[in-house]
Amino acid sequence: MEEIFNMLFTPEVKTAIMLIIVLFGVLYVISIIWVIRDSYLRGANPVIWGIISLIPFIGAFAYSMMRPPMLLSDKDEQAIDFALKKRELMKYGECAKCGYPVEREYLMCPNCGTQLKNECRSCGHALNPEWRICPFCCTPIGQ
Predict the structure, then answer these.
(1) What total number of domains does the chain contain?
(2) Burial class (CB in 10 A: 0-12, 13-18, 19+), 102
(3) Which of these, 25, 36, 112, 132, is most buried using a 10 Å CB contact count?
(4) Pick from 14, 36, 68: which residue ends a domain?
(5) Which helix or strand (DSSP H or E) is residue 126 part of?
């Protein structure tokens, strides 16, 4: 039996098996490092996921199935982009009569002709109807 074992497992085969075992060991360690680093960047708990990833290859697979969809930096960028778009939309409104989109500085609706705001006689800026004084040039608004 020992002779058959020695014939099947020559030094070359033993070396190949050792290389495969070392390769799987390196992949195992790399998968643990990846899970810990990625969970940290995505805002998940890296300690818990690091412990789960100690289960060979199943832990890394479980993490890849359950990890948060976005990096924290992507979430921050998305929030900033949303805030900028919201701020840009604040420049616009709509006509109270016809609902047509109008800019904040419009005096009249370009669609139906309804007067939206008053015009300052001194500086020409658009003024809200409830204002008593022009905030741009401090001119009192006549009734």
Answers:
(1) 2
(2) buried
(3) 36
(4) 68
(5) strand 126-127
